[in-house]
Design brief:
The termini are close together. Helix content is 48%, strand content 16%. Helix 8 links the parallel strand 6 and strand 7. It folds into two domains: 143 residues, Rossmann fold, CATH 3.40.50.1000; 64 residues, Putative phosphatase, domain 2 (DNA polymerase, domain 1). The strands form two sheets. Strands 5-4-1-6-7-8 form a six-stranded parallel sheet, sandwiched between helices. The protein has a two-stranded antiparallel ribbon with strand order 2-3. The protein has ten helices and eight strands. The chain is α/β, with parallel strands linked by helices.
């Protein structure tokens, strides 16, 4: 007997390791606009609140809004062409998703990544897997607002009590809380277990196998 009818996943740092490509596009955009580049660890700390916030944090302090927008535009152009260069699913995640789907669990993605990238990435790496994918788009407040999660629940007609949100960051923890639903925090992504605990994680998950057991057995 499955415990949840619906598992909603974050994307970056939860099912896909996108860090290298995010850092590559960030640094390509910074360099193209004449700014110093950032380390991968810096970019790791900057992600989670959407691409615009990533660029706001990556540009030097005091950068004007117009110049920040130039970097943002350069990032979007570069990432559109390079979002799959080094990005890969985390080990064990494709098998996890296949098992859950085979068990009849509905699957969705809610991400702060631009919506135009979320669908193609999911379909490329996990074809015919997700019932709904939602990225950053006009008219839907990005996480940690619950809007996108609520949109998924409504689209699939599943009550929040039968769903769980799974992510790797403080933003995901807050998203689940704001949506009034269960939350699981994975430790293989962009934040470590100690940080997640400090930011309110109730239950940490260390492997896709462990996550499968929790989702299906409790």
């Amino acid at each position: 007997m499955k415990r949840y009818d619906l598992a909603i996943f974050d994307l970056d740092g939860t099912i896909l390791d996108t860090l290298a490509d995010l850092a590559g596009s960030t640094n390509a955009a910074l360099a193209a606009c004449g700014y110093p580049t950032r380390t991968v660890d810096e970019v790791r700390r900057f992600v989670g609140n959407g691409v615009r916030r990533l660029i706001q944090l990556a540009v030097p302090d005091g950068t004007g809004e117009a110049d920040m927008e130039r970097v943002f535009a350069a990032f979007k152009a570069h990432y559109a062409a390079h979002s799959m260069d080094a990005t890969r699913p985390y080990d064990g995640v494709p098998a996890l998703l296949a098992r859950l789907k085979g068990d009849g669990v509905r699957l969705a993605v809610v991400s702060n990544k631009l919506d135009g990238a979320v669908g193609p990435l999911c379909e490329h790496f996990f074809p015919d897997t997700f019932d709904v994918t939602v990225g950053e788009r006009p008219g839907v407040r990005k996480k940690p607002a619950p809007d996108a999660v609520q949109a998924v629940l409504e689209a699939l007609d599943i009550p929040r009590e039968a769903a769980v949100y799974i992510g790797d960051s403080e933003v995901d923890i807050a998203t689940a809380k704001n949506a009034g639903m269960d939350e699981l925090a994975v430790t293989w992504g962009f934040r470590d277990g100690a940080f997640l605990r400090e930011n309110g994680a109730v239950r940490l998950v260390s492997s896709p196998g462990e996550l499968y057991d929790i989702l299906t057995k409790g």
